[in-house]
Amino acid sequence: MGTSTVSLKEAIDRGGFYPSLVHHTVTDALDGREPEQQIVHVDTHFDFEEVHRHITVLVLAEDVMVVAHLDDHDADEDRPFQHEDAGPSGSSEVVARISTEVVPVVRLRSLILSEVHRRPDKFRPDRGLAEVSLNINWTGSARFDSMPADCGNPECVADHGDTGTVVPEDVTLRIAATAEGDTAVDEARSFVRALRRATVKYSR
Asked: H or E stretch including 186?
């Protein structure tokens, strides 16, 4: 099984989102295993006037896949019931929350790769993809992200109940060449190929 042409540290450094913390945490989760392939995906989205970034790292190492996810927020969000007399809130302080999971590849239930091709009528195997979407599932579970429903009228104060979306609990990534470059797309495809080979090898 081949290894990535870019080291794990280089890939995390290139992501540029708390690289020292992310690399330390992922290396600790690997517990001495050598990384073979990885995906480092930084996602940015806008919430009113704020910009939020998240980083997800997938690492294949021998018979396991390490999944790490980090996001950051103001420290006040961890103290929603702070007493009004508690003094300055220190809203400029930022905390980062990072979670890791070590998944044996034999536990993987499904691995779905969706590819978007430019000009399919002129397909060539050597031409880069527009984007790839990756879905990896090992628990079969999903979560429901709920939020207050909105009728669209900014002056309406009525209670419209809740709405939301069902999101797979495991890993779903979308990697577009226009946003992250052809290299990121190629690395995602290489990761999937390596993970497929690993599931066959270790399920014997």
From this structure: helix 182-202
d(CA 153, CA 157): 9
- The predicted model scores a pTM of 0.77
51-55 — which CB contacts under 8 Å span 24+ positions? 53/17, 55/15, 55/17, 55/18, 55/22
Q: What is the pLDDT of residues 140-152, one digit of tens each?
A: 766 566 667 777 7
Tokens of 21: 């913390």
User: What pLDDT shows up at residue 83?
Assistant: 47
Kindly indicate the confidence band of residue 47, based on its pLDDT and cuts at 50, 70 and 90: low
Which residues are CB-neighbours of 113 under 8 A, at least 6 positions away? 132, 133, 134, 189, 192
The CA angle 161-171-73, to the nearest 5 degrees, is: 65
Which residues contact residue 132 at a Cβ distance below 8 angstroms, ignoring those fewer than 6 apart?
113, 114, 115, 116, 174, 175, 185, 188, 189
φ, ψ dihedrals at 53, nearest 5°: -125, 145
